[in-house]
Amino acid sequence: MDGWWLALALLLPGITMALWLRLLWPEAVPGRWPLVLGYGYLLGMLGVAALLWFQGVLGWPLGSGIPLTVSGLLLVAAVFLLVQRPSAASPAWQGARERLNFWQGPACGLILLWVVARWVGLALEVWWQPLFPWDAWTTWGARAKVWSELQALVPFVSPEAWLADRTGTLHTIGAWGYPVTISLVATWPTLVLGTWNETAANLPWLGVGLALGLGFYGQARLWGASPLTALVFVWLVMSVPLLNTHVALAGYADLWMATAYGLALMAFLQWVRSGDQRQGWLAILLMLICVAIKREGLVWAALFIPALLAAKLGRFSLLMVGGVLLALGGLLWVLGGLALEVPGLGAIRLSADLIQLPLIGEMRLENHAPWEPVLRQYFLYSNWHLFAYLVVLSLVAASASLWRAPDQAWQRAGLVWALGSIAALYFLFFWTDAYLWAIQATSINRLLLHFMPAFLFWSMTVWLEVAGYRQESPRLVHKAG
Fold it and tell me: Domain map of the chain by residue range?
């Protein structure tokens, strides 16, 4: 019976959200079902985490009753609306099957077989392996276990506040200020079981990895990639050693960040390219989710701002914006920096040797040069296979393609996002104390993991453009309203 309850906890929220997303995609476009299943699982599990957070904020005990009831009612409503709505005439799978020639079919089958076999092995690792990796049992899993055992969202505070507490109701960990979202995701299956269980707490990591693959395939097919091309890039994502490690050694928040950020970038590029407002809203929602997963999610989400400006503004306007930003930077340099207090948020300080921002923290600025460990980790070691080389080639190809066709808004947006992401990682590892993460080989790979699925999807769009793919079917374009 426990197995049925666990399956219900892991599947019901995702299926519910998938059906609601299916209502938004009534047309039978290629990749529709993989898209809604992938995005639906991620949104469903994080939606349950939000419900648990609201229960805790209201002072109610943490339990499975409210999330299961809400998910069940939403599921019934979605099924009712789907039954009432006439279905599209031609299923997307039929069109995909007709486009496969005599060798593409077996090739797709072999890739699928490889992916399935690999993920069966990862599933067994998740099932057998106890809570193992460092941050999992010191941060994310530690809070989840406390909340599961006490069935209450008890607060985690700084060590100083914990030492001063006389009530014995407060708890502390080293990373006490991290967002609670992923800890609540791990708490959820154990609440349904009624007891703490490390396997149950880890199983959502297997689900979110599969959701990434499904969402990637759906967006790739919607972009116009053939089934074989889409599967090849899904295989590239799903075979990255570090991503596989974050599934097998479940418990870190980085896999959730990589999935949310990657799916956000896919939706963002689709919106810029086609004007599909559904994709735009998905992108915005997932950017907000990134902020709720980890503190650096705010910075990563901000990278979409210059990409959006690049898509919406002409070359002259972009030069004007760049000139204004350079002028403001020069003015701050001359004035010695900026210091102000924002009510409700905290202090903002910008100077030549310090950046302090609300929700992010304080960073001391000093030039470092950890070139050797960075190049070794990204270009030599096997955590990434040939991912870094593909990104370099994609940057060259994207620049050449944009030079030939500068009016392609999505190409401008994608290239600006890619360059901005690389610049953000460069700034972090070469100008802040995070250079130690590169030298010590700690977070240098986990931070790149946040960008990896997004970079692979962007690379796919670049090479499809180089190969001469074009979006010709009007059914791929949908503007709400």
Answer: 2-81+107-295, 307-470
Looking only at the bridges linking them, the beta strands covering 354-357 and 346-350 are antiparallel
3-state helix, strand, coil in the chain (%, to 5): 70, 5, 25
CA distance 480 to 477: 10
Whether the model clears a pTM of 0.90, i.e. scores above it, the answer is yes
CB atoms within 10 A of CB 83: 9
**Residue type for 348, please?**
I
- Please report, as a single letter, which amino acid is at residue 378: Y
Q: Which two tokens stand for residue 303?
A: 């990278």
Tell me how far apart the alpha carbons of residues 260 and 160 are, in angstroms, rounded to a whole number: 34
Q: Are 461 and 223 in contact (CB under 8 A)?
A: yes
Furthest C-alpha separation in the chain: 73
Of 244, 326, 253, residue with least CA distance to 291:
253
Q: What are phi and psi of 100, to 5 degrees?
A: -85, 130
Other C-beta atoms lying within 10 Å of the C-beta of residue 278: 17
Please indicate whether residue 247 or residue 318 has the higher confidence score (pLDDT): 247
344/180: higher pLDDT: 180
Which has the closest alpha carbon to 282: 15, 463, 18, 6?
Answer: 18
Residue 363: strand pairing partners: 355
Angle subtended by helix axes 198-223 and 2-24, to nearest 10: 20
6: Cβ–Cβ under 8 A, 6 or more apart, which residues? 189, 192, 193, 200, 203
Alpha-carbon span 229 to 464, nearest angstrom:
9
**Structure-token pair, residue 267:** 């939706």
